[in-house]
Amino acid sequence: MGTYTPEHLERWSADGPTAFDSAANYAGADLSDFYVAPVSVTRDSELLERVNWQVVTADLDKVSQHDETGSHSMGHWACGWYEIYLIHADDAAALQAADQWACSLADYPVADESAWSEAEFEAVGDYWERCGLRERIEALARYGLSIFAARRDEVPEDPTGSLRCYLAEGL
Q1: Domain of 143?
Q2: Same domain assignment for residues 100 and 121
Q3: Confidence band, pLDDT 50/70/90 cuts, at residue 20
Q4: Are 111 and 51 within 8 A, CB to CB?
Q5: φ, ψ of residue 87 in degrees (nearest 5)
Q6: Total of domains in the chain
């Protein structure tokens, strides 16, 4: 295995993800031989964060050449838990790929447009199924669509896409 020094990744630190964390409060394993990938998820992650996590970690799993590289879940007092992807300093292929992801996501925060679009489409459908009849009627009326479509299980057709955009805001 060759060596690679990433330009855009941070080494793991026990100081944690918030300003209120400190190494003095950390009692876990020494992970100082690891770099942190440019994606993470928490209990409260939004859809795009979850999609980026899936896309980037799947890619890093494919190129990783080190057994210790991978996803690590940690409990946290503020957000309940968070999951980060740690890359061993000896895993040159994964470090290079993660460094490229860091640059790419800094320029444009979507790892994969198709994956995000598909996840949003499914999430909007799930949200519609959970909506009560009153909420469905209000949304349809807001966008000038037939309120009789409120009884349908699937999101009604909307030529402008405004209804789907409105529903996606609630995700």
Answers
A1: 116-169
A2: no
A3: very low
A4: yes
A5: -120, 120
A6: 2
pTM of the model: 0.83
Residue 81: in which H helix or E strand, if any? strand 80-88
Least Cα distance to 9 among 88, 72, 111 occurs for: 88
How open is the CA angle 141-116-122, to the nearest 5 degrees? Answer: 50
The number of helices, as runs of H, and strands, as runs of E, in the chain is: 5, 4
Q: Judge whether 32 and 11 are in contact, CB under 8 Å.
A: yes
Q: What is the pLDDT of residues 106-142, one digit of tens each?
A: 999 999 999 999 999 999 999 999 999 999 999 999 9
Of 110, 128, 154, the residue at which a domain comes to its end is: 110
> Is residue 160 in some structural domain?
yes
Token output for 129 = 């199924």
Residue 36 sits in the same domain as residue 90: yes
Same domain, residue pair 43 and 77: yes
Whether residue 133 is contained in a domain is answered as: yes
Which two three-digit tokens encode residue 139?
């949304």
List, as one string, the DSSP characters of 99-150: HHHHHHHHH-S-S-HHHHHHHHHHHHHHHHHHS-HHHHHHHHHHTT--GGGG
The H-or-E segment that residue 167 falls in is helix 162-169
Rounded to whole angstroms, how far apart are CA atoms 87 and 92? 9
Grade residue 45 by pLDDT with cuts at 50, 70 and 90: very high
